[in-house]
Specification:
alpha+beta; Rossmann fold; restriction system; 9-stranded mixed β-sheet; 25 strands; about 30% helix
Length: about 650
Amino acid sequence: MGCFWNNMKDLQFIDLFAGIGGFHLALNSFGARCVFASEKDAHARKTYSHNFDTQYFEFNDDIRKISPDQIPRHDILCAGFPCQPFSQAGLKKGFDDGEDSERGNLFYCILDIIEAKRPKAFILENVRHLIAHDNGKTFAVIENLLKNAGYTVYHQVLKASDYNIPQHRPRVFIVGFRNADKLPPFQFPPKIPLTYTMSDIWQGHCEKKIGFTLRVGGKGSNINDRRNWEFYRVDGEVKRISIDEGKKMMAFPENYHFPVSKTQAMKQLGNSVCVEVVRQVAKTVIDYLNNHQDFFNESSEIVVKRNKGELSEIYALCKVIFEQDIHYGDLNAKLTDDYIRVLKIHTKHSHIDLKKSHMIIYGKNGMQHAYMLSDFITQNELNHILGEIKNGKSTFSIKTLNDKVALLGLQKTKGTSLQKGDIVLSFDEKGQIFSQQNTSIKSFLGHSPTLVNASQATNFIYKIQNIKADDMTKINAVDTRAKIKDRLQKITDLGGVLIFERCENPVYESTLRKVDSRMPEILADALLAFFKKQINHHLISYPNEKIVDLEEKEQIHCRLKDFVKASILGIFPTYEWNGHLTANAILLINETGELVFYHTNKDAVLKDFFYKNTIFDTPSSSRHRFGLVYQENNQFYFKLNLQLRLKK
């Protein structure tokens, strides 16, 4: 069987919670290329950057501050996600990690990327206690979420000593393959006899054949301490382990250097994965992909599965080609008499000239192909596609659409992750030509489309005044069906007052102030009113009757209209905004499959319609890490999350 990749450098991986690069070393040993890495700890970042040339890939400093669609395409996702919440050292807190609620829930950052980028495979690593945590419930949640994302999942506890490295260091490895339920089962790498002992590590006779497991951030202790792990008796002499021995015990190469103190270096080694174990797992994963290369090839029909949003974009493209005349919508999404005539459609790899009876596709390679419109798509086919999208669940495949995608030479309609436009149109409106108009597609064929996606970047932080430490326990103990509302009420009942402090992501706060200097405060107050049930779920219902100044109320409505427009056509919460819109039109697919057009040349209608139909949504508080009182520097805080949708 030939190799899946023409050159192993074509194999791309991302390195999440990268530490000092154990996964990177393992994958790179097979020639694979890192296209993105993320690590928050400043000391680990220093070591990582010293040993890997980070000019060739983005080295992110906080995975929570980047949107999943901004991650580069990759074949394998690697992540040794934070283990403290699942370990004995972390008091086995799992997904409920107390005041530091970030670590256990950072798993959801991985899941979001897997769902958005759909890599062929992933390799995850954690402490062995993850499997038994909370009587297996935590691991069951993780496994089910990965399976629901469309992956066949395997796991096994592996020890370094099983792969000829003289320390036990048991870790659970979770491996998944995209849509691979019908393939033969994946097998973890077989054990290798232990011939490399601590005597080889020390280059002298050592009383222990297998060494103590390097501790996470461990400190020195007396030689007589049974829990000691730093000291060994070598040739009758007590010796303390150094960085060199630590590197050998973790299978790091001799030329790997630590530009940090010895204390930091030993802590980093203790936090790392054993490189050789990851190498063995990575080899079996790559071999599995190669052995089933036809299945995992993205051009293979069996894996061409898309969610309703992606399918709706392609449906809209086909319908634009078929109809060409697209009508503007009014304040109620009803078609008006005004319309545009689409002349060209521009995609990443081609542009399409539309004529009354045919179309010409111009590829980037200079090739051109002409097709009769009646041969490309018919009304019956559009009706069939529409029905399939409406009735489909989660991700699925529509052969008719797959054929159209292949004919047009598309992978997807969207150009880049930093553009709000899903499709680029050139059109004629009453004799005036509008060239290359970036157009966002919003579809009512699935769930209500999101206008602002929930993420940690959209968390708003409130300072709580007038409560005590024991009040925090009482508030967080509230676990009703409406727990956020009831916790907020409990704060009030205990005499607490919430005051907006800041947005969790300073980039988003800066962006909001570019829309309007008061926008963070306006949204924070509206968000608090929504979660307290003081207003309904329509954004336009804020402010409520507590603001009696009609002029001020109208000013707030005007500011919020600008915010909604900017959110649809320009703002990404995790990226600094320059104040410019990256799209200037919206193509709305209503529930009957009609296309309704909005453009900034009819700005008042666009803003009024979308503002009128913007609603608050309540995302998962555990997934997005909000809704609990927490304490920092003797001050109490509470987070709420902003997610907005378009009402169907």
